Prior knowledge:
heterodimer; A: MetI-like fold; B: mainly alpha; MetI-like fold; 2 domains; 14 helices; flat
Amino acid sequence: MTTTHPPATLTAPRPSQRRARMRETIAGYAFLLPWLLGFFLLTFGPMVASLYLSFTDYDLFEANWVGLDNYTGLFSDPRYLKSVQVTVTYVLISTPVKLVAALLVAMLLNARRRGLGFYRSAFYAPSLVAASISIAIVWKAMFVDDAAVDSFLQIFGIDTGGWVGNQDLTMPMFVLLALWSFGGPMVIFLAGLKQVPTELYEAAEMDGAGAFRRFLTITVPMMSPVIFFNLLMETIGAFQVFGSAFIISGGTGAPADSALFYTLYLYIRGFTDFRMGYASAMAWVLVVVVGVITVLLFKTSKGWVHYQGDSR
Amino acid sequence: MTTTLTDATPPTSSPVTQEDSDRLRQQAQGRSRLGSVAYHAFMVVVSLVVLYPAIWMVFSSTKPHAEILGSVSPFSPNASFDNYLTALQGIGGVSFWTFVWNSTFVAVVSVVATVASSAVTAYAFARIDFRGRGLWFAVMLGTLLLPFHVTMIPQYILFQRLGLINTFTALLIGNFLATSAFHVFLIVQFLRGLPRELDEAARIDGAGHLRVFTSIILPLLRPALITVAIFVFISTWNEFMGPLLYLKRPDLYTLPIALRLFVDQTTTSDYGAQVAMAVLALIPVAIFFFVFQRYLIDGVATQGLKG
């Protein structure tokens, strides 16, 4: 049980040892059985099936091989291109905005003061419900014409005429919803900040480094693994917004497709139009894009992410 | 620079002495009186902004429809529970309580199934030395990043062929098969932090893995399992896509899709009743948050650190 390396000599491991290893392997797969079943039946099998479907015109009744037509069709589908534009814009704006807010507030909370527990809970709570249908309904009701947000802006003489029906204000409305859920990454940042040794800051302060300098030379490098984790998870999550876009746009991406998020259009194609081959091609493009982004983030991370122990 | 090290301070490589730290802290305390007021003033303002949607939601749900629009103030002289009475009437002949029951059933079964299957899976990854473990663990982590949309369509076709449309089975089956990599990973991390001596001693005494898992590991896993249970409850309670795909009969609806139907039917935009129903749907999540917030926050905090 203790040896994991194969013996260096030509003599085979003792039969008792071999039997013990064998027993471990059997036990391992017995415990792993539910997960293996789930993986093959509900993840790997369906992935292969959807790859196949993406080369067909499957509509729940019959599937004819169409080669790359679904994939080439994506690039001449204006609604598809619009959904890519909406989603990429959303990812590029909402992710940095949310993460910067999360890090700044986490730094404010990383102090020895009273009442921090209350602030932390108050800021964290929205992240549990921000993606729920209840909040989507509330968001819509707050942003329609003459509702809370519009009335508030009217005090300053700005009349937006409601954000929900205005295609230029759809994106800011969704970004604000993402920003509202900054508490999730904030809690992770805060836990990371607590592990940065205070002597480092004290030493830097003794040497006359200002607050901004200390942030750049201590906080950012020490926190880089946590920043990397949050950046990866938030970016991937931002590609997959669905419920709130569905409710706020009435399931259509309205107005003028300004709320036509990628997964919403995928749903419309697959389950409203029943063009499941086309929707499968969309799903595979999403997987490839998310995969490429993940690989790129990991590659660039070698340059800026420092794990404790490599350089200290 | 002073180099006096008292016996109490452990020798460190950092050039900062205890005296230096004390001096910095004293300086900081001198600044702190005014700073503290500014700090709390700022944080209270941020808290109010962050909590505004929640406050707005609760107060608007008691306002007559006509007063929801055209005012920033949460208060109304005409507050009443009429919106709740409308919401509780249900939709299309189905009682509101049917939706509550459906959501509760799906959430409770999901919690029990996910906790059990994830614990078993995590035990295999963290404590059994089997061939191929590294490979399967990497595969499991890979599924953590996989957008579920790529499996959604074939899963739908599979469940449709099996006659599982309009059943809860379609929603629940994945929970029994540990498909949530996030929760498996959370328990693996927790297990790695538990000392191995206890279970190794039991193994040497001849206990099998099943025995070690049920009588030694499972009791120790309690905090991690509670965290997973709360996360699963909240995410299942809020789950929208699965029920939208698989439940087509209103008497089977869970709350999120019942809310969606309610929004679609009240096209005259009766925001008061919609918001009241949204409040009702969030009550269990709010209760879980208030009771278990420590578990939630600690659970979220650890995932980023050890990942």
